[in-house]
Design brief:
mainly beta, 1 helix, about 90 residues, about 5% helix, 6-stranded mixed beta sheet, Ribosomal Protein L25, Chain P
């Protein structure tokens, strides 16, 4: 599946920094590839962070993506930094 702008929303904005939320059925390994967020290149800035919920229809993962670069409308985010721990109960 490809990036869908309806799944990206602003949580907070201050001092030129935006905190985003993104949800998708795509796996984290797809979401953190160069070019995945190109459809939002005009909104995302280097240093912005995206709280992401990925693979929501499979094995869900949650974490933080950092916008690492955005040049010539090509967006790259750092690999997903997971949030939460394994539930051992």
């Amino acid at each position: 599946m490809a990036f869908q702008s309806k799944d990206l929303s602003v949580l907070a904005y201050a001092n030129g920094f935006t905190l985003w939320h993104f949800t998708t059925t795509d796996a984290a390994t797809d979401v953190d590839t160069t070019g995945y967020f190109n459809g939002a290149a005009d909104m995302l800035r280097v240093g912005d962070m995206i709280l992401a919920n990925t693979d929501t229809d499979g094995t869900p993962a949650a974490g933080i993506l950092l916008v690492a670069s955005n040049a010539a409308h090509v967006v790259d985010v750092a690999n997903l930094t997971p949030v939460g721990a394994t539930d051992s109960d």
